[in-house]
Design goal:
about 240 residues, Beta-Lactamase, five-stranded antiparallel β-sheet, three-stranded antiparallel β-sheet, 8 strands
């Protein structure tokens, strides 16, 4: 009887221990799981809030860059030396002068067109003379004739159209910045987020390791965008990553 009583007593103790452990586990799950879910939701909200802030900061950066390119094109178009060299028809000295001006800026392209919409001199990227045809230009463009980077931030300034200059010369200055990997890396440094630019669903630049390497010609652009005189004006989409 004592032996049997001892077994029953041990069984009762084991049951109490198991019940207590089970109660602790249920309590921990009941209290801890909602806390874990709450912390998870808060982290996600903070992450998306940071991405949203980065997106707004990026929009402000693009607006600032666009204003800067417009300003540089306008400033270049007002330079008397440029008018003088264009009037003389000295393309070599004009190209050197553009190179000097561009070296003091972050421009990847600076060119001058004459009044007949012909490209006279260029510094930077190699482009076709079709770029001179457009009457007005300010914004983001797919630019035909460039093999390395199809998307550009461009601005043009026409001088001597409303009021002729002292030399009587009329023409146009086009300034541009390539939206390449280096460009979005700079955006990453200023916003703290990784950036990838897409045009028509195709990645054209990225701040992620390796960038958009060995991509060759960017596929997916409509034929009209490739054959247009200046290219299609469109603002690329930007994805942000922490």
């Amino acid at each position: 009887m004592r032996r049997r009583f001892g077994i029953d007593r041990l069984s009762l103790t084991g049951q109490l221990v198991l019940s207590f452990v089970g109660l602790v586990l249920v309590t921990a799950i009941a209290v801890g799981l909602p806390a874990i879910l709450l912390i998870r939701n808060q982290i996600q909200q903070q992450a998306w809030s940071q991405v949203d802030q980065g997106s707004r900061a990026t929009q402000a950066l693009y607006t600032g860059w666009e204003s800067s390119v417009i300003h540089l094109a306008t400033l270049t178009g007002h330079r008397p030396t440029l008018h003088s060299l264009l009037a003389q028809g000295n393309q070599e000295e004009l190209s050197q002068y553009l190179q000097t001006l561009r070296s003091d800026t972050e421009l990847d392209l600076l060119l001058v067109c004459d009044n007949d919409h012909q490209m006279v001199a260029v510094s930077g990227a190699s482009v076709t003379s079709d770029i001179c045809v457009a009457e007005e230009m300010a914004g983001f463009y797919i630019l035909p004739g460039t093999t390395t980077q199809p998307v550009w931030l461009l601005a043009a300034y026409t001088f001597g159209a409303d009021t002729a200059s002292e030399s009587g010369i009329q023409g146009k200055v086009v300034a541009g910045v390539a939206l390449d990997d280096e460009f979005v890396i700079q955006a990453r440094e200023q916003t703290g987020l990784e950036h990838t630019l897409f045009t028509d669903g195709q990645p054209v630049a990225s701040s992620l390791p390796g960038g958009i390497s060995d991509r060759g010609p960017v596929a997916g652009f409509p034929a009209a965008a490739r054959s247009a005189s200046v290219g299609s004006r469109r603002k690329p989409q930007c994805s942000h990553f922490q």
